[in-house]
Protein 1
Amino acid sequence: MTMAINVDRQRWEESISLLIQKAQSHKDVYNTNINGFLVYIHPNVYSPKYFPESSWYARNLQKIVNGRSFLEVGVGSGIISMHVAKTGSTVYGVDINPDAVDITRKNFEANSLEADVRLSDLYSSLDPETRVDFIFWNHPWQYSSAIVSELKSEKTFDEGYSALTRYIAEGHQYLNDGGAIMIGTSCYANLEAVDSIASKHGYQVLTEVQGIEKLEDGTEEVYYILRLKHI
């Protein structure tokens, strides 16, 4: 699936903890500009201002989706879905966090874009007849509770990848013929577990795109967009 990457887990946890604290220091909605989009960010929503993966996924998915229909699970601030919508795609977004749903709707309106954004536990609030060409989730990377306290939130921690398992198992119900389930992940996720879960549900994991970005202090993160292919 992926190349072996040497990572300094301890340094990364220290770096990411400081960024989470910085993001949480905001008491009110704030805004920033990302790739030409005006982005409002709620303090209770994962912040693309401080964490570069959302922008990286967004730029690459814009090319991959290229006007076809798209569902983002865990829509967050909406920055990924806005990039995709800019190409003319029909876009759906879901999130379990009501603050994420509200801020994504605000961001789409602020950037004169359209999407169907819903409060939902994974696919639970989608209409049964919903079908798209691509489903994507930048899933919570952390698999085990043996992590620093700042990473123990629903935005970053999915114990045993129980939610990721549901995402993979149920996603096919919402795909058009020839559609694809995709996963955003990183070198700091449990990639072996991702492979194992996918295999148990009849999928091979293919690396669509791989890239590297740096956090504020220079710590590198390796990102992957994975595509699930029926075995």
Note: Helices lie at 9-24, 53-65, 79-85, 98-110, 162-170, 191-200.
Protein 2
Amino acid sequence: MISILTGDIIESRQADPKIWLPALETALRQSAQKFDIFRGDSFQAEVKLEDTFKTVFYLKSAMLHVNLDVRIGVGIGEKEVDALHIKNAFGSALIYSGEAFESLKRDTISVKSANLEYDNMCNIMMALSADLCGRWTSNMAEIVMTTLLHEDSNQIELARLLNRKHQSQISTALQKANYGSIKKAIDYCTQELLRL
């Protein structure tokens, strides 16, 4: 099984693409196995199962860092036909991802797989976590993004990476961002996903 993420940048036309497009491309390069950007502000990405939710919030934090947001439909399933570009591949993961994306109304994250019980549980956790993300400042988003990318680093190392003088700046920002709660949701949804 694999995960396919289908997403777009919310209100991208009201922002300078010279700012957000490089941020999106960099985030996708750092987190996805394969990705395609199309229609200017839409994308598809293939990610390992175990990285699914970490990648969702990494992409979200990358866009929130440039004062935009992203909608993401997560499809979990198979990829029967592989191709150089995701847009030319086929399988249940791609179908579910498109359906999850099309189902987005007020929420910015939706998950779809062959397991409805898992989807329902995960979608509740993702909706609550995404709501917490909506309260982030650009600074909080940058710190969360760096924390997700460097999970094995302690806060002193993160402060160095982010050119912050004090470790306490990292700790305070992560607390204000409710990173602990979001990380619990990421870990739980990932753990349950790997049991499917």
Note: Residues 116-133 form the longest helix (18 residues).
Protein 3
Amino acid sequence: MGFSLLEMLVSMAVVAILLAAGMPGLQQSSERVQMQVWSERILMLLQQRKAFAMAENRQITIAMDSIAAELPNGLSLKHNFRAGSPLVFEGNSGFARAGSIELQNAGYGSKIIISGLGRIRRCQSVGMALPEFRAC
């Protein structure tokens, strides 16, 4: 009344084929979620630091190296802030040093743009479409 060895092997082969067919979609979904989560974290960090600078009426400097050090493997960060001119939010006005931060993984790219007036926005820079991001 049980299963024969042949029936078990065939059913295991069918399950393995179905799982293998779904793996690329799972990997792509994982990369998309990774991009959404980390770009949101960095965006929120910048907005928080800007608000803190204005509330405390003091200058706040953001160290890009510390942000890059926290990123998981497979996610890279590029920015155009130099050691002599880091990202700074001014306390009395909320103004900032203008520049951009770009995140990339194997399938997606996100860019966070900071204007001189302190406006912070996020867009899709490269890769496959992220539905909640506008194109840069």
Note: The longest strand covers residues 120-127.
